[in-house]
Specification:
With about 525 residues, the protein is mostly helical. The protein has a domain at about 410-530. Helix content is about 65%, strand content about 5%. The two termini are about 50 Å apart.
Length: about 525
Amino acid sequence: MSIQVLKKTSEAPVEKQAKSDQLTVPLDDNTSGIQTIFDSKSMSDEEKEKNIKQQFKLILMTDKQDIWKKFSIEMFKCLQNYIGNCNSGLEKSLLDYVAFAAEKGYDESHTHDLYWSVRESGLKTKLEQLIKLKVEEEEEQEKKQIEKRQFSETVQKLVCAYQLFMNNNDTERNTNEICMKVLQKDLEIILSKFQQKKEATQKELQQAVITMQTPVKIRDKYGFFHYQINSDLVYGGMIPLFHLNCDPHIGCLQCITVHQPGTQEFHSAVMDSIGEITLKDVQNSRYFSSNFQQNLTKNHKIIDHLSFQIINFANSNPLQSKQHKDANSTLENPSVSYIASVVKMLFNILNQNEWNCSTAQNTPKLLESIGKLAQIKFLEPTMNEKDIDSICRIKYNFLKCMRQIQQFGDDKTLERLTNNFYAHSLVLAIASCGGSSIQNNDVIEQAALNTEKFFTELFLGRNKAHEFFGSQKSLAKISLEQSEEEGGYEEVDAWLKVKNKDFQTRAKYAINAMSNFYEYGKSYYEPVEEDD
């Protein structure tokens, strides 16, 4: 199979001559294709650019399993050889190849092989040189301008591709600092416009979203982010932008009201960045104190802000919230994906922080609202894939929030959880996934874990260093009744019959806890019957 590369003659326009006068490039060898196009002496740069883009479109249509045959070390050598200084449209067109390989490598878990290919081909060094060069050029150009602007799309692509390629591998320190400078400038420009009651362009918002999402994706996948996040970026950009369109009931003095469509996706990215990059890596960073989480809670009332969003969303119809808008409001109603980011940030705030967990459990109506949203059911086929994914994230992170609250709570916490129908919510969380064609493993396992830990402490109490309370059997009885209303044992027991051993183990722990097996010394390790 081959693609056809258009070649210009002096006798006729390109459009008319293309069919009869063609240069054939083998599709199975994209490296040769790029070399042939760039080395051609009969085509103009415009024609070369058009053909490079045509060949890239064919890569996009390639089957997933065949994509990586095209991105060999030879391909990366070819890209670094012809990409030049990314000045012309022709050179910039090769950035699409680089960005695609980086993004797909992340998505398809080819990052380790890609990293070595990028490094050995010389493309890693080339990207570092280009990032430094283009940022310096644009900073010099900006000195002649009155208004500050974001770095160009070219810089953004270079930075994002470099971060994804490097993931958890060695990176050049100066390049790291430049990458963070690009993100910081994106946020500073948008913040300045919002503070001056001006609208940011959709392109500015979208570019900032992409720049923020890249390190979040790396943090999600590898458990850490390898760049140092400096305090100016957090306190000068992320934290002020967290206060976009605060609920008026909070009376937030730092609120920035923005009557502009499209700010929810941007605000979600800000919350994800604060939670996934800053909060989780705070103890590994020399820039922040160990009290950083509590600082956010006390000085910025972050739990209050998140709680209002969650409570309001739980009291509405979550799946219809996008369609129903307050006629007196010019602000967007929260989408399901936006609330997923709110809940994720709440978990990051609570994670391993006793003071914040205590603040959360004493926030009126928060536990009740968390219980409601943990029970959201899937309504196929009326829901789109994005909403289904968001609901899975909402349920999963809410369950993790409740686990943190119980873990750092006491006997009064167990009473609050029982009064808010926690056991009922746990069973429904399992049932709503198990009965759906979308079976979210993380939600089911987390719900089973929470069930085990909750009923174990209800029946046995807690006896740890500096932590003690006796059994709460009256609460255990109430909670068992709550769970049985939704078929508690049956819902959990159903997961003993699946082939997944992790599910079987987690389900057995949960059933043992609900049955108070531990107190009576019955064996947990009973054989699981196999299906015939």
